[in-house]
Amino acid sequence: MSEWVDLVIYATLIIAFWFVLPMWSARFTLATVADRNAQWLRDHPDVAAKLSGSQVRWLCHAWGLVSLAALFAFQVGLWPGQWSPEALDMARWETLKELNTLLLLPGLVAFIGAGVLFSRWLNSTVPLAARRQATLEPRTLDDFVPRWAGTAVYALIALHLAAWLAVAAGGWHMTPEFWDRFLLMLAMTPVFLFFPRLGVRRPPQALDRIFGPAFRRTEVRYGLAMNLVLPIVGSLRLYEELADAVAFDVSRATHLGLVLCVSAGILRLAQFGKEQTGPDAAERWSATSAATVLLAATVLALSGP
Amino acid sequence: MAVDIVIETNAPEPVYEQIVRQIHDSVKSGRLRPNTALPTVRQLAEDLAVNRNTIARAFRILEDQGVIMTAGRKGTFIRPDAAREVVKVKATRAERVLRRVIKSLLIDGMSRKEIAHIFDAALGLEARKV
Asked: Residue A164 contacts by C-beta under 8 Å, 6 or more apart in sequence?
């Protein structure tokens, strides 16, 4: 498969993460503060003005442009020789993957750091409103996902783990990497199972009150759907173990698949709130671009090696 | 349709009493039907951003009054006869309040006839307001 496919998939993530997401979240900063204490926000118009004019999103956009330029430069060969795939003794797609990760990590740390700082400022500066409301309704997974879907996913996970256990017990594995892969599957399964549970259990937040029950429902369903990743990847790995054959590059496909899932999640998230405030032109353009490169990636992937 | 609880943390009435009162009102009005499941103490405490002990206290009072029942891991539910228990609780509370007032008036030297007359007049006035 051409590395151009990898490039456009990474470009989708960059556009979603550094353009669509900051623009979308900037629209709801004031609403988040108002949800905590609307009276306090009215009493502090200077703070409201400062939050509205925040420049953080422009830093995100700038980093997104740098990331896109760096990936494109690498792909067309405009890259220092000592960091070329040949010099690093890595496959070209692997070098592209590492470069994308390298570009993503610092920005991700800064993004998360900004989020934590904002949360701390909010909790320490804006007092909780005296008047609070809650629904007298218990929240369970069945409230957000059809029971048959939840049961099917959990059954698939159980079957998947049972298959690995059977191969381990029967000694049918062919490769020396079997135990590493087995332990990874065992360790990652509870991590993925945690996501839908977190979506159900977390307390209502500003975005829940702004967007309504559809927001949490989407979050829980997305978290549950992510649980299909391990059985799919695990099944391919089991095939390799049993047949001692390589169907295709599972590592590469898994990584690209995860990137696509995250990009899709961000683009879906950005659909919320269109009724409330309406997207501005720049956000519409970004979301459309991300969808376009996603389509391009699909076409390229299907068009041949 | 889901019933909401609204609390005011700066009100003179303690938060746990606000929760008990609102659940009483919802049961009496039929908005909370028998065998309806309630959220866990943890969930309600997190949703209202109050201490778990506050919710636990409210639930304990409701359970002692026979309004709710806890079925272990299955959760907490409105009892089938909750509405009747709520009426009983309110009647008991009203009787306690009235007895206190009557005792105070008797100590002040008022006769039973005078107290009854004042009570009827006050009840008539309040009934007209409602």
From this structure: A182, A185, A186, A234, A238
**Which among B2, B7, B49 is the nearest to A136, CB-wise?**
B2
What is the CATH number assigned to the segment(s) B15-81?
A: 1.10.10.10
Contact A136 B40 (CB under 8 A): no
pLDDT in tens, chain A (305 residues): 678 888 889 999 999 989 988 888 888 888 889 888 989 989 998 888 888 766 778 888 899 999 999 999 888 888 776 666 666 677 888 888 888 988 888 888 887 888 899 889 999 999 999 999 898 988 988 889 999 999 999 999 999 999 998 998 888 887 888 888 888 888 989 998 998 999 998 888 888 888 888 889 888 998 898 888 888 888 888 888 888 777 667 788 888 888 888 888 888 888 876 655 444 544 555 555 556 555 555 554 544 44
**Nearest-by-CA chain B residue for A209:** B47
Q: How far is CA B6 from the centre of its chain?
A: 14
**Cα–Cα distance between A57 and B106 in angstroms, integer?**
73
Helix axes B41-48, B52-64, angle to 10 degrees: 130
DSSP bridge pairs for A131:
B8
SS3 A290: helix
Query: How many Å lie between the alpha carbon of B36 and the closest alpha carbon of chain A?
Result: 9
Tokens representing A249 are 């590059």
Which among A133, A138, A204 has the least Cβ separation from residue B5? A133
Answer yes or no: are the C-beta atoms of A265 and A195 closer than 8 Å.
Answer: no
Nearest to B62 by CA among B33, B97, B86, B32: B86
**Model pTM above 0.80:** no
Residue indicated by tokens 């204490």: A37
ipTM above 0.85, yes or no: no
Calculate the CA dihedral of residues A57, A58, A64, A65 and round it to 10 degrees. 160
Considering CB atoms only, which of B2, B9, B46 is closest to A135?
A: B2
Establish if B108 touches chain A: CB-CB under 8 angstroms: no
Helices of type H across A27-177: 29-36, 38-43, 45-52, 56-75, 85-88, 92-125, 147-170
Cα–Cα distance measured from residue A169 to residue A173, given in angstroms and rounded to the nearest whole number? 10
The burial of A256, by beta-carbon neighbours within 10 Å (0-12 exposed, 13-18 middle, 19 or more buried), is given as buried
